[in-house]
């Protein structure tokens, strides 16, 4: 299944790496480097999946997730972060994320997570 995916990360390297993996999977990818840009792009294009970093300049990922859920309660957000604390995982789950993956991302993990989410599932690896 090919999908429209929005990558939200302040790291250009992380965005390029994730984009490369997603495009190899056949997905159409758009990028945002901060929360405000992400909200604007999601509002305009309503992506099938959003891959969201937690720590960014200007707006923390949890705030972006909350605002996206206000725009669209059905938004499917995968949180991708190097933060491995259980409290962070619990916060994003409570805020409505459908999946949580740890960075650095790898092809196997990303493929499995995106496919699960596109099929309507949730995963907390």
Give the topology string: H per helix, E per strand: EHEHEHEHEHE
Global outline: globular
What is the number of beta strands? 6
| Strand composition percent | 15-25%
Q: Can you tell me about this structure?
A:
With 125 residues, the chain is of the alpha/beta class. It has five helices and six strands; from the N terminus they run βαβαβαβαβαβ. It has helices spanning 12-24, 35-45, 61-71, 86-94, 107-118; strands at residues 4-8, 28-32, 49-52, 77-81, 99-102, 123-124. A six-stranded parallel β-sheet has the order 2-1-3-4-5-6, sandwiched between helices. Helix 2 runs parallel beside helix 3 (61-71). The longest helix has 13 residues, at 12-24.
Write the layout of secondary structure elements.
Elements: E1 4-8, H1 12-24, E2 28-32, H2 35-45, E3 49-52, H3 61-71, E4 77-81, H4 86-94, E5 99-102, H5 107-118, E6 123-124
Parallel strand pairs: 1-2, 1-3, 3-4, 4-5, 5-6
Helix pairs in contact: 2-3
């Amino acid at each position: 299944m090919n999908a429209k995916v929005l990558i939200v990360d302040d790291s250009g390297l992380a965005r390029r790496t994730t984009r490369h993996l997603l495009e190899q999977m056949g997905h159409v990818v758009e990028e945002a480097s901060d929360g405000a840009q992400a909200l604007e792009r999601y509002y305009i294009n309503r992506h099938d999946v959003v891959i969201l970093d937690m720590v960014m300049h200007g707006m923390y990922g949890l705030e972006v997730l909350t605002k996206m859920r206000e725009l669209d309660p059905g938004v499917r957000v995968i949180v991708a972060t190097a933060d491995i604390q259980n409290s962070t995982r619990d916060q994003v789950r409570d805020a409505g994320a459908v999946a949580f993956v740890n960075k650095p991302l790898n092809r196997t993990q990303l493929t499995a997570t995106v496919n699960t989410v596109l099929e309507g599932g949730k995963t907390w690896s």
